[in-house]
Amino acid sequence: MLRPYSIIVFFLVCSIQVLAQQNQEINYDSDRTLKNEQRYPGALILSKVDNQVYFDHDGIEVWCDNAVFYKNANFFKAYGNIRMQQGDSVRMTSNYAEYNGNTEFAFASGNVRMERPQTTLETDSLFFDRIKQQAYYRSGGKVTDTASVLTSTVGRYYMDQDKYSFVNQVVVTNPEYTINSEQLDFYSESGHAYLYGPSTIESETSTVYCERGFYDTRADNGYFVKNSQINYDNRILKGDSLYFNRGKSFASATNNIRVIDTINDSRVTGHYAEVYRDKDSVFITKRAMAASLQDRDTLFIHSDTIMITGKPEKRIIRGYYDVRIFKEDQTGENPMSGRSDSIYSDQKSGLTKLINMSRFGNGKPVLWSGENQMSGDSIHLQSNTKTEQLDSLLVFDNAFLIQKDTIEGYNQLRGKELTGYFVDNELQKVVINKNTETLNYMRNEDSDLIGINKTLASSVEIFFNEQQIQDIYYYNQVDGTLTPEEDFPPNARQLQGFNWRGEERITSKESLFEGDPPLKLPKIKGIPLPDEPDEFFDEREDDDPLLNENSRLDPKVLKNQDLDSLKTKQEVQKDSIKNDPPATDSIKAKE
């Protein structure tokens, strides 16, 4: 156990050691040493003859051609071919430099070049605080990394973290891309960059925008949040968070995503997406929905998973598992909707296939046009590639058309194949071929029921007026009977295979999602703002100023300015740093 006096002695020794370290004298060596009391009172004038003037102070070494050394003040000013070195970590060259041994504060100007193992900093003027182990410029600087060149108006280097903080007109130039940002933190050893404020990453093939993000400048991939989007040649990807890998031409998005096709005027939404640029493909899931504008009408496709592949002129949309479609026009009078297990849509040919239904009803795709329900083993929709309006539809195998009677019952037509024809997106005519059978309610002009007609024929043509059956023509009729309602058994009023699925009908864009299981979105891991840094030019005691009285700098130069402040996480009320125009920050000599 230490006695009280031992503790006192211990602290005295430590204090003396600290003071000795703070007041350590600058050592020097010079080929020529002169005095000029008239011009430099109390100073030594040191000059090179064969060897450069040399200074050494607490681990920092300086070489120069000429110097003015105020030995009693522990301060020097160096001129010509200056080299400054701190261990193996920092090497700096400049035209002029000065160093205060009491505060360990240095300043360099004129072609300043500071080299670190991974980076080289070039600037017009640089402040260097050895106590903080930080360097700082605000008159414009350039940092050359192993992969990129970074420029900014203001820059600050933290040696203990090997980190640069760039502010104002930050530009990162790489052979593959260019980054522009309001503020960027760069870690030299890893090449990691953190972007704050409106930022872009531009290349020949893509443009990334974000207001907060991370980018690995060496691995060429990044992660972006806050108003982020990736623009490809013909697609825009947006989401709460985006991942981007340039080498693999790959991007993914999570939560509230949108993929916009700028050429085909379509978009896909959902909560997870993957985009493969070279393959021209998009994969999207979690409430996935594709919306395509067709001649001022919009076709919506919703399914568990949607894939879009092919070049812009050959786009193919595929949907899997519980597919639902809804098409509306501007008037809202001729909606069309459908369901199937999967869907295939070729935008070049205008062909859309509803196939392999397995989760609803009897496993067949179903389509509603107005009040008409059509179903079969598969359904093909054909659009006009010029007008993009619906032209026709085909129902293959076990085709069935059902229409609710205006008062009661169902009008029904069944056969092997069904062909429908559209005019202005409205169903006008249907032809059913092979082993057709019909059952329809016959009414007079006053809508009184005349009887129920059940007919067998080789083929049938049905004409519609305002979505209602107007005329039916039978070809090669085999049998047909009009029976009074009271004589027609109720249990015989449905043809074999009848399945009215009106409760599944989709009546609006919003109802596309009815019955979907609850969706729990993952929590996005954000990118926090950096901690608020201390001011570079700390207030010092009056008897211990950063600058020596013989410095050629005006003390006003060391005043912290608005331009010097960095955006930090304390500024929660603002999303971006101040964008005021920079003030002129020239280094002025004292009059």
Question: What can you tell me about this protein's structure?
Answer:
With 591 residues, this protein is mainly beta. Among the domains are: 1-117, Lipopolysaccharide (LPS) transport protein A like domain (lipopolysaccharide transport protein A fold, Sandwich), CATH 2.60.450; 336-505, Lipopolysaccharide (LPS) transport protein A like domain (lipopolysaccharide transport protein A fold), CATH 2.60.450. The chain has one helix at residues 4-22; strands at residues 27-29, 32-35, 44-47, 53-57, 60-64, 66-70, 75-86, 90-100, 105-115, 120-129, 134-137, 141-144, 149-152, 154-158, 163-173, 178-187, 192-202, 207-216, 221-231, 235-245, 250-261, 266-276, 281-294, 297-309, 316-328, 336-346, 351-355, 366-369, 372-375, 378-383, 390-404, 410-423, 426-443, 449-465, 468-475, 479-483. β33 (426-443) and β34 (449-465) form a beta hairpin.
Question: What keywords describe this structure?
Answer:
single chain; 591 residues; mainly beta; lipopolysaccharide transport protein A fold; 36-stranded antiparallel sheet; 3% helix; disordered N terminus; disordered C terminus; signal; OstA-like_N; OstA-like protein
